[in-house]
Amino acid sequence: MIIAIDGPAASGKGTLARRLADVLNLRHMDTGALYRGCAFEVLQAKGDPSNEQDALKGCKKLKEKIQSTPDLNIILGNPELRNDKVGNAASKLASISSVRETLKSIQIDFSCQEKKGFNGVILDGRDIGTVICPNAHIKFYVEADLETRAKRRLKELQSRGLDVTYNAVFAQMRERDDRDTQRDTAPLRAAEDAIVINTSDFTEDEVLEKALAYAKKVRGL
Ligand code: DC
User: For residue 164, what are the CA distances in angstroms to 83, 151, 160?
Assistant: First the structure.
């Protein structure tokens, strides 16, 4: 079974994906972490994430690391990938189609490999239901209004001790939304057959409940 979750930054898609993975015993891939991993390599090499050659070098480095590590999550779980500098750089290189093509194969491999001991896979990102897994059994599109998402991100950054303001976080998030939704290749959008969940007024538990109720209805899970 494949579950696809898409949505903008801080919409709650990652939390929902992790919680569904736990409850339904699925292997989870946060595909944003792949783009972040690539951006991290570019920044480490003092490259420009908007430059195709620099971005492809970053992808190559990331792929080499993935191939030499038995557990992908060790690389994708690197806390250094979580800062906003890396997130913005990831959003820039994500609009380069050759970069998307390179990272696509990692995601397809993950979704096709047999997962011993698991009931299936769940991937979250921006184009999972539309491009990576168009035949996913269940698709969710998770969204929330920009103000709510900026407040969530501010709280998260402050809890990590970072000195940031609401206005700066809001502006950066709007810029990132624009880039992710307006790029030519695989822009962020809901798949036609996705169930849309707006998380603005719901707790994480309520969002999980809604998603599980839907999964039960369509797949008897
Ligand atoms: O979900 P995130 O914030 O970790 O993603 C970082 C960036 O990576 C995001 O701004 C756009 C890009 N991305 C993408 O284009 N496609 C995906 N499937 C996942 C992320």
Answer: 12, 11, 11
| Atom of ligand 1 lying closest to residue 123 CA | 18
Q: How far apart are the C-alpha atoms of 11 and 93, rounded to whole Å?
A: 21
Residue nearest to atom 16 of ligand 1 (CA): 126
Number of domains into which the chain is organized? 1
What is the full DSSP assignment across 78-146?
-GGGGSHHHHHHHHHHTT-HHHHHHHHHHHHHHHHS--TTSSEEEEEESSIIIII-TT-SEEEEEE--H
pLDDT in tens, 137-185: 999 999 999 999 999 999 998 998 889 999 999 999 999 999 999 999 9
Q: What sign for the dihedral angle of Cα 171, 200, 126, 161?
A: positive
What's the pTM?
0.94
Range of the domain at 129: 2-214
- The closest of 148, 105, 178, 163 to 10, measured between CA atoms, is 148
Give the pLDDT confidence score for residue 73 in this predicted structure: 83
- Is 111 part of any domain? yes
Task: For residue 220, tell me if it sits in a domain.
Answer: no
CA of 220 to the centre of ligand 1 (A): 31
Which tens digits make up the pLDDT trace of 36-65? 999 999 999 999 999 999 999 999 999 999
